[in-house]
Amino acid sequence: MANDGKEPNSNSSYSPHHSDHPRMVLVSKSLNGENFSTWRKAMVISSNGKSKLGFVDGTFKAPSTEDNPEEYVACKKCNDIVLSWIFNSFSHDIVDSVIFYDTAHEVWEDLQNCFSQSHAPQIFQIERDIACLTQD
């Protein structure tokens, strides 16, 4: 069936597969701040397997809202599904730090900046400990 321009191409990378849903968990171990390298590798493999790695690594560029509003809406929907997959793979305190980003790529970049440094896990643990401090 030909695409008449009114419906997004179901073969495109921003058309979710019928089995894709926001509550899906792509990796078995949640990112906790100390396991970034292994979590990152598992997410790359999983999102590539779902043909959505471009949303995560930034290689996929969304269509513009003016030029192609229908495809933009489909792309936004798919990005939101990918965001939910990423959020579903975090411990709760990490989700709170990235929940206001609009794209999966922005979250990915923030995580790279935060956790790919050699002392990032220790810094994260200290910041989490400080945030949990209470005065008796």
- What kind of sheet is the major sheet? none
> Could you tell me how far the N terminus lies from the C terminus, measured between alpha carbons in angstroms?
68 Å
Number of extended strands: 0
Helix content estimate:
40-55%
Word description of this protein:
This protein is mainly alpha-helical. It has one domain. It is built from six helices and no strands. The chain has helices spanning 36-49, 53-57, 69-87, 92-98, 104-115, 120-131. The relative contact order is 0.17. The model is unreliable at 1-11 (pLDDT under 50).
List its traits.
about 140 residues, mainly alpha, 6 helices, about 50% helix, about 0% strand, disordered N terminus
Structure, briefly:
This protein is mainly alpha-helical and 136 residues long.
